[in-house]
Please model this.
Amino acid sequence: MKRDPVYGIMAEFDSATALVEAARKTHQAGYRRIDAYSPFPIEGLAEEIGFDHDEVPLVVLIGGLVGGLTGYLMQYWMSAVDYPLNIGGKPPHSWPAFIVITFEMTILFAGISAVFGMLALNGLPMPYHPVFNVPRFSSASKDRFFLIVFSSDSKYDPAGTRGFLQGLQPRSISEVPS
Amino acid sequence: MDEPYKATVDTEAPVMEPGYTFGTVTEKISAIVLTRPASNGWFVGFGIAFLLTMMMLYAIGYLFLKGIGIWGSTIPIGWGFAIINFVWWIGIGHAGTLISAILLLLRQSWRNSINRFAEAMTLFAVACAGIFPAIHVGRPWLAYWLFPYPSTMGVWPQFRSPLMWDVFAVSTYATISALFWFIGLVPDMATLRDRATHPVARIVYGMLSMGWRGSARHWHRYETAYLLLAGLATPLVLSVHTVVSFDFAIGIVPGWHTTIFPPYFVAGAIYSGFAMVLMLAIPIRKIYNLEDFITELHLQNAAKVMLATGLIVAYGYGIEAFMGWYSGDRYDAFTIWNRLHGPYAVPYWSLLICNIFVPQLLWIKKLRTSPVALFLLSGVILVGMWLERFIIVVVSLHRDFLTSSWGMYYPTRWDWMTYIGTIGMFLAAMFLFLRLLPAISIFEMRTLLPEAEVKE
Model:
């Protein structure tokens, strides 16, 4: 597959308010393959660019259930099936004593799922990404806010999209090479 | 009624001094790592801490050579310094998780300027704590037997033992604390990657940032994961010291076999942890000129948490004494008498002075806002909490049911070298952390600025 030499067009804004405003207008204008970048999380920004399904909670729930089951069944199998030991006359399947480790394993698996699930869903780690080709983008981790329309968007056309972004009164506009 | 209310608001110190922008917050915090040269004071401090770490390694090396006979722990006091220090360190770690997770859930935005180094403190404290049980097992090269792995011996760990629960609780705690800390660092690593001028720094911070670019989708998932992690860490941190207290409370030794232990251990953990947070925060904010970010408000809030948890601890001591009398059990009653009048009466009375009487000074607002007073009081509390664990471990064990099995406990120089050495290791790690990673969460500080708010 031949890659488009242009990855998208990027507009730079001064404030969080301007970025949210611009993201809303771009989405309303019918652009769907867009993204917004900010130096800190902005509430509601993801919704403005059309992000509506966050799978992280489901991943964590599954991780927690797997962890809890693993913890309990491991103890049950080891203490009651594989090598039963008489400890102080307690039954081999002494479930109250197994609760603590079941709980810890639930937390452990759920926590690991939260971190690595989030990274995987975000496609991280990603050593190369075209947005870093724009020199001004280094301020995206400090005090600037960026909006990009990807060239893969069906409504994208180089001149028209640039004109549209210009209408949002950004601080600057740059073409992002892939 | 409006006027007095307004007056109290005006005297309240702010979370952050006004006048900062996204740019200046970023520069101020990242400059500590990127541009500020290491001072002579840093080298001296790190050097001392490093030498103490070497002393610890020497003591542990000699221990491996000779066995735990070089320590003072012997029957009837089989636990000694190793368990005292383990409980002390792990308790100190708890404040970091409280600040980063519980205060996040409670939407206490003042946590944003102290959570990063408090979490680092947690990690280093847990690392120090983890050393002790591992070297206390007698044959430390076989410590991995604690984990359930399929071995040719065909046996499994004994899951009805609270010591086994502790293995899972502490290793889960260490893992989750490390993940929570790392994931909080990722956006700041991207900031350092974009600011660094040295090529090695750019590559290292670039790899640690994992290509973070601040996409709105990423932030959304990130915040969800961070919040869920906080929700998981909250019951976890309470469970860890509860399980540590089970190590004692499940046993039948007088002075240990009590139901007050879990809540009073957790409160004591947070008590000592906040004392350590203050002992670190007060010099750090002074030396690195961070008074604008770690303000009087943070010191006051930490002091109030110490006062509250200290009172819970005092209540715990009271209930212990009351139950010793009310149970009618002569061994329980004797344990209380023995604490007050026995051979370890001096450490016990010192403990009461350090943990209950002196911290009542925190009721005085003038002392709550004085960094020097808070630093000294925190030191007193840390000593007191160490003495508490000494009393719990040693005094209960040294005189139990049979007078024929009574004994005394005398720590040796190897005990002291190992203990003081872990303090050195903890400080050495803190010194390195301050120079290599942003000590305050930059992106969370940005969200505190008024301009971070989206105006409709």
Remarks:
- Chain A touches chain B through 72 residues (CB under 8 Å).
- The helical segments of chain A are 16-28, 45-48, 56-82, 95-121, 158-166.
- The mean pLDDT of chain A is 90.
